[in-house]
């Protein structure tokens, strides 16, 4: 008797490969959907945190401490003064309160360090290198014109996404879903910042008016 061995048909192999491919594609879609849901949940929770009174109180106390430090420590000649210094302190405290969970908060903190480094670097260059002429401004103007032409050729949605990405710190080169997620959190944080600063301004103005002696 001859031993007959089973030989799988090509049709069976093709069907199994197609089924395996469909299963992998389905698993990939499910993982993408679950990741998107978790990102939405995180962004919603973060936006909800900015609306809580506890978060507003934490930010207000930190901002008050930062403003006191501005009054105690006189700024350096190159440091921003007046309203700009208050605005930078408010944004820096907002980024610290976000605890680096978002791109915009990390961008604000790292941008401050970059500005410090650039100021020192520019100061050294002014001391070492001679004064440059107006021809150094030409490449910047040329780059700006090229960027404007590129923006005009983009579709409307991409153009608006680029504009929004420039407004949100740290989102200049990010895709649209990331920009929208960061914008949701950033807007909620700014709304909380406005509420806290309005409350602080009212308290400080009330304290200053009560400290003024009334005429007898």
TrEMBL record:
<dbReference type="InterPro" id="IPR059002">
    <property type="entry name" value="IBH1_N"/>
</dbReference>
<feature type="compositionally biased region" description="Polar residues">
    <location>
        <begin position="1"/>
        <end position="16"/>
    </location>
</feature>
<feature type="compositionally biased region" description="Polar residues">
    <location>
        <begin position="36"/>
        <end position="47"/>
    </location>
</feature>
<dbReference type="GO" id="GO:0046983">
    <property type="term" value="F:protein dimerization activity"/>
</dbReference>
<keyword id="KW-0804">Transcription</keyword>
<dbReference type="Pfam" id="PF26576">
    <property type="entry name" value="IBH1_N"/>
</dbReference>
<dbReference type="InterPro" id="IPR044660">
    <property type="entry name" value="IBH1-like"/>
</dbReference>
<dbReference type="InterPro" id="IPR036638">
    <property type="entry name" value="HLH_DNA-bd_sf"/>
</dbReference>
<feature type="compositionally biased region" description="Basic residues">
    <location>
        <begin position="19"/>
        <end position="28"/>
    </location>
</feature>
<protein>
    <recommendedName>
        <fullName>IBH1-like N-terminal domain-containing protein</fullName>
    </recommendedName>
</protein>
<keyword id="KW-0805">Transcription regulation</keyword>
<dbReference type="GO" id="GO:0005634">
    <property type="term" value="C:nucleus"/>
</dbReference>
<feature type="domain" description="IBH1-like N-terminal">
    <location>
        <begin position="54"/>
        <end position="114"/>
    </location>
</feature>
<dbReference type="InterPro" id="IPR044549">
    <property type="entry name" value="bHLH_AtIBH1-like"/>
</dbReference>
<feature type="region of interest" description="Disordered">
    <location>
        <begin position="1"/>
        <end position="53"/>
    </location>
</feature>
<dbReference type="GO" id="GO:0006355">
    <property type="term" value="P:regulation of DNA-templated transcription"/>
</dbReference>
<keyword id="KW-0539">Nucleus</keyword>
<dbReference type="GO" id="GO:0000976">
    <property type="term" value="F:transcription cis-regulatory region binding"/>
</dbReference>
């Amino acid at each position: 008797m001859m031993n007959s061995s089973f030989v799988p048909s090509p049709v069976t192999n093709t069907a199994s490969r197609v089924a395996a491919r469909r299963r992998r594609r389905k698993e990939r879609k499910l993982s993408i959907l679950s990741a998107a849901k978790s990102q939405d949940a995180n962004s919603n929770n973060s936006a909800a945190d900015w609306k809580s009174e506890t978060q507003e109180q934490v930010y207000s106390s930190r901002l008050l401490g930062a403003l006191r430090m501005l009054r105690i420590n006189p700024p350096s000649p190159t440091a921003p003064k007046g309203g700009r210094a208050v605005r930078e302190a408010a944004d820096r405290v907002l980024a610290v309160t976000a605890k680096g969970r978002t791109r915009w908060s990390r961008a604000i903190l790292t941008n401050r360090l970059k500005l410090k480094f650039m100021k020192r670097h520019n100061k050294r260059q002014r001391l070492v290198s001679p004064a440059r002429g107006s021809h150094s401004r030409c490449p910047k103007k040329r780059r700006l014109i090229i960027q404007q032409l590129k923006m005009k050729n983009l579709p409307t949605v991409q153009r608006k996404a680029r504009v929004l990405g420039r407004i949100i710190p740290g989102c200049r080169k990010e895709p649209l879903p990331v920009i929208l997620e960061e914008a949701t959190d950033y807007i909620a944080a700014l709304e909380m910042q406005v509420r806290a600063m309005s409350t602080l301004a009212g308290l400080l103005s009330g304290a200053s008016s009560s400290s003024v002696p009334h005429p007898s």
